[in-house]
Amino acid sequence: MDVTWYLVLSALLFAIGAGGVLIRRSPLVILLCLELMLNAGNLALIAFARAHGNEEGQVFALVVMVVAACEVVVGLGLIVAMFRRRLPLNVDDMRELRG
Amino acid sequence: MEEVAFFVGAIGAIGGAIAVIALRNPFYSVLALVVHLVALAGLFLILHAEFLAAAQVVVYAGAVMVLYVFVAAYVGGVEEPIWEPIPGQRLLAPVLAAALFAELSIAVLGTALTAFDSEGPTIQAGFGSPAAIGELLLEKFLIVFEAASLLLLVAAVGAIVLAGRKQEAS
Q: Which of A69, A81, A83 sits opposite B152 (nearest CB)?
């Protein structure tokens, strides 16, 4: 299989994730869509590593996984904090910081 | 054989991704994401990223998704209102996503880099094994490795500060 196939698949997954962020309004599902986008990036990085026969891209993907885990922990902490304070779990209602 | 495995993995990944954004119940979205991640781990295996495939299943589909399941069960179903702040947002969003996909595809298919039109160079036996990745992490990318561990510590402390109960009500 050509590496191009993997790159096009990764572009498609990234686009699906970006569309999900635009469509859904629940912060939990938006976090899930961010995971989709990060994993699309991971797939592209690993495909690049294969294309160049070099493992450094895989180390990059591992670091992306670590950053994604941190993002999940902080994001879920925010969602739990919003739920505890009885704020609406809807990103359109949380717009006080909008300029 | 490899083509069959690729298309099975790709269909699983795309189906899981579409299910994540299409299902109304966040709990089912999380389960769809698990399907997506396991399919992606299969694709990583085809690309000879064995350690990353294992890490994807154990860390991502295992640990991180359990965290999501707990929070989805704690928060419960969130009803999404019909009201939209930007008119036509739900119709516009798929168009924008399709445009993004077309743009990325043009960039990938139109590139002059000839390395992408082949399977990639032949690789030796230990490519992507835990030993090879660990050697790179501890020799060439040691600072990145330490920074990642520090970032994980900061994130854990931050989550406790954000979600923990206040001792005195202010």
A: A69
In a domain, A98, yes or no: no
Per-residue pLDDT tens over the stretch A14-64 = 999 999 998 888 888 999 999 999 999 999 999 999 888 888 889 999 999
- B49 to chain A, any CB pair closer than 8 A? The answer is yes
Distance of alpha carbon B73 from alpha carbon B26, whole angstroms: 9
pLDDT band at A85 (very low <50, low <70, confident <90, very high): confident
DSSP tag of B60: I
Considering the domain boundaries, does residue A56 fall inside one? yes
H helical segments located in chain A: 3-23, 27-52, 56-84
Q: How many CA atoms lie within 13 A of B91 on its CB side?
A: 2
Nearest chain B residue to A14 by CA: give it: B101
Q: A39: which residues sit within 8 A by CB, 6+ positions away?
A: A13, A68, B36, B37, B40, B60
Q: Which amino acid is at A66?
A: V
Q: Which fold has domain B1-81?
A: Four Helix Bundle (Hemerythrin (Met), subunit A) (1.20.120)
ipTM: 0.90
Q: Is B67 on the interface with A (CB under 8 A)?
A: yes
